[in-house]
Amino acid sequence: MASLVSDQALATQKRAGMKSLVCVLCLIFALPAWSQKGVFLSAEDFQRQAFADQESSLQVLWLTRELRAQTESILGHSFGGLRVRYWTGGGRTAWVFEEIGKELPITVGVVVDNNGIAQLSILEYRESRGGEVRYPFFTEQFLRLGLVKTSGKPKLDGQIDGITGATLSVRAVKKVATLALLFHDKTLRTVSLEK
Amino acid sequence: MLKPILLATVVAVASLGAQAAPSLDEMWAVIQQQQAEIAELKAQLNKTDSKLVETEMMVTATADAVEQGVAVSGSLAKMAQWAEKTQIGGYGEHHFNRFADSKDQVDAHRYVLFFGHQFTDDVRFFSEFELEHGIAGEGQPGEIELEQAYIEWDYAQNHSVQIGQFLIPVGIMNETHEPDTFYGTERNLVEKNIIPATWWESGVMLKGELAPGLSYNFALHSGLNSPDSGDEAFNIRDGRQKSAKATAEDFAYTARLKYTGIAGLELGATVQYQEDISQGTVSDASAMLTEVHGIYQQNDFGVRALWAEWDVDGDAAKLAGRDKQDGWYVEPSYKVTEKLGVFTRYSEFNNNAGDSSSIDSEVWDYGMNYWLTENVVLKLDYTDFVNESSGTDKDALNLGVGWSF
Q: Does the pLDDT of residue A147 top 80, yes or no?
């Protein structure tokens, strides 16, 4: 009987402890918090950041049969558009893509200069999980990466450390970075042909 | 175009001069005729230019229409809009186990389908439907299970709430267990027997991010209902009610903090309080689960480690030797190539840790994964029970194929 009383007392004590935990958690929730999803940078601000005080113009890259095949091999699915719009100026290009992570599209801006990534920013993240891809600790890994010079499927020439629980978002951002490098290269080739 | 005309004019004038100088009237007539021709050619040129602009506009408009899909009919557009908001996915795994001391086995272990729908930007539905072991029904080895079915509502800028049936936020594998995301044909035994994964309950869960990389979950949900007698008395895994007409006399509360603020790193800690894991059949069986884990992936090297412990109150659990149940594992791995990875895992666990005479299960696993694509994996590994508390030898060579989409 003594043991039963002691057990009940212990249980009461634990319930009180649990209530305290709930109160602490409520306080934590009341602290300023960061959102996983949201608009973090507008396309206009992204363009301004990309070209600062440099002149830039909006151009269109039409997808040829070969370029579409390369695009789709990078994405792992079909590409809906017939062309891609981009800003260009002073030898650098800036691209904005939407690619689905798990269920919803992530809007990613990529600036390419001298065949390397000069900036990668998450403009908008819509899913409720995996939004850590927007932080500099992740995006800064892409800086200065280019494409591996092989004849196979285009891929990044450096390693990107992932984020656990955000595997699909990480994959989506890597695909977009690869695509921007490929398209930048195509714009250079187009210009040289025109010349 | 204009140059040849002018040239012809000069030649014509020169030849006239060679014959006889034309009068002013004749010259004027020639000039007027040529002026008319120039005007006509200019008009043609303008027409061509405007046609070019018109064609460019038409090409752009066509491309716009194709890209936006406006050319499809109303019903098709409606269907496309619905499909855009509805997601289908899934995963599956087939296993072959060559046991050292029992009959070998082939198993269609899991076949899972996900369905989700985005009602608005802030309200969505998600579900996971599973067939285990190929065939379900009375006397059959398998089960059809609803693993998840909840509504998620982003009720404020920084917070979401899940209402319905969801996976408990604990451990490494309970929430993320697609076969292409982990090493080993079978899921690790510590999370299976101690946590116990895969574990879902019904209730309400708040979630969000407190600081860059620091996220929280807090859930109020249905509790365990473990047997209070027999061999499986107070065994945690046997207490899962799977939201199937589950007794809900006593609830449970789960809180987790997770840090993923450094690339490749995850640190997580979960505390759960169960009001009564017997759902009132004994005088006291409240319980506390504590779990911590870490994952680190740097370039090709990775390591996962987890520790979990249950403390169950009351005399009945103590008598069964199940007032304490605990386990841990550590799993280093290395990606030899982009597609091939090798691993080893050492695990210790004991569901009778409250019984001082019980023996911990000690298990080594080692093997490899070969990813045919990012989402399709072939697995080969060996499970070696160094010390099996139940006395049966479950050493096995395991082969598996798994996928997710």
A: yes
Give just the sign of the alpha carbon dihedral A162, A168, A173, A175: positive
What are the structure tokens assigned to B80, written together? 């496309």
Beta bridge partner(s), residue B376: B373, B403
Angle at B161 between CA B156 and CA B167, to 5 degrees: 155
Of B332, B290, B287, the residue nearest B307 (C-alpha): B290
- CA triplet B70, B73, B77: central angle to 5 degrees? 65
Q: From CA B147, how far away is CA B132, in angstroms rounded?
A: 11
Regarding whether A112 and A29 lie in a shared domain, the answer is: no
Of B181, B335, B369, nearest to A102 by C-alpha is B181
* Nearest C-alpha in B relative to A155: B338
Give strand pairing partners of B162: B152, B205
For A88, the token pair is: 């260009």
Cα–Cα dist B277/A95, whole Å: 55
- B-chain CB neighbours of A14 within 8 Å are 273, 286, 288, 313
Q: Nearest CA of chain A to the CA of B187: how many Å?
A: 17
Second-level CATH architecture of B75-404: Beta Barrel (2.40)
SS3 at position B77: helix
Test B284 with A21 for CB contact under 8 angstroms: no
Amino acid at B174: N
Is residue B392's pLDDT more than 90? no
**What pLDDT, on a 0 to 100 scale, did the predictor assign at position A32?**
44
Chain A nearest CA to B104, separation (Å) = 34
Contact list in A for residue B215 (CB cut-off 8 A) is 36
B338: number of Cβ within 10 Å: 10
Which neighbouring-strand residues pair with B339? none
How many folded domains does chain A comprise?
Answer: 2
pLDDT of residue B75: 76
Q: Report the C-alpha gap between B275 and B295 in whole angstroms.
A: 31
Residue A20's domain comprises 1-33
Chain A residues near residue B159 by CB distance under 8 angstroms = 29, 33
CB A133 within 8 A of CB A170: yes
Confidence of residue A33 (pLDDT cuts 50, 70, 90): very low
- Are residues A85 and A7 both part of a single domain? no
Backbone angles phi, psi at A150, to 5 degrees: -130, 170
The most distant pair of C-alpha atoms in chain A lies apart, rounded to whole Å, by: 96
Domain regions of chain B by residue span:
2-68, 75-404
